[in-house]
Specification:
- This protein is α+β, with helices and mostly antiparallel strands.
- The chain has a single domain, classed as 3-Layer(aba) Sandwich (Trna Endonuclease, Chain: A, domain 1), CATH 3.40.1350.10.
- Helix content is 40%, strand content 28%.
- It is built from 4 helices and 5 strands; from the N terminus they run ααβββααββ.
- Strands 1-2-3-4-5 form a 5-stranded mixed β-sheet, with helices on both faces.
- The longest helix has 26 residues.
């Protein structure tokens, strides 16, 4: 049995490791990465807003322990004795951002704040509040102080 030279090349190619096919990211993956970056940018903007008002940023994207639900807080800022837990919402419009804060998110934020207070030795009489920072796609911002009573 005789082999042609092209057949021998084929057999040699079978022994080589094959390159992995290039997989294009799904629309969902791309959208998720974009939303993540938008969230980071919105939180940076919110932090600058508070810093410009004389607040000190204590934590960004603070995550509570898993046994307390693993909830997170976008920003924790302070000014004097007041500690502020901040939820940041970026949407197409400020109105859309305002309507995106649901009761379930408030309970998540309250659990996270309780965990934060326990972990940092803050008493029940601590001066705290919950704010929401709204951002739209044109760069407009709005801070809603005391958005949720604790």
């Amino acid at each position: 049995m005789s082999f042609h030279s092209r057949q021998l090349d084929f057999f040699a190619a079978l022994d080589r490791p094959q390159p992995k096919p290039i997989v294009e990211p799904s629309h969902r993956t791309t959208r998720g990465k974009c939303a993540y970056q938008t969230g980071l940018t919105a939180e940076d903007t919110a932090a600058r807003l508070y810093e410009n008002r004389g607040y000190r940023v204590i934590a960004r994207r603070w995550r509570g322990p898993r046994d307390h639900g693993g909830s997170d807080i976008d920003l924790v800022v302070s000014k004097g004795p007041t500690t502020v837990f901040v939820e940041v919402k970026a949407r197409r419009s400020l109105e859309e951002a305002a309507h995106s804060v649901m009761p379930r998110q408030w309970s998540r934020l309250e659990r996270a704040a309780e965990s934060y207070m326990l972990m940092h030795g803050m008493g029940t009489n601590a001066d705290i509040r919950f704010d929401v920072v709204l951002l739209d796609r044109h760069g407009a911002t709005q801070i809603i102080e005391n958005a949720q009573p604790f």
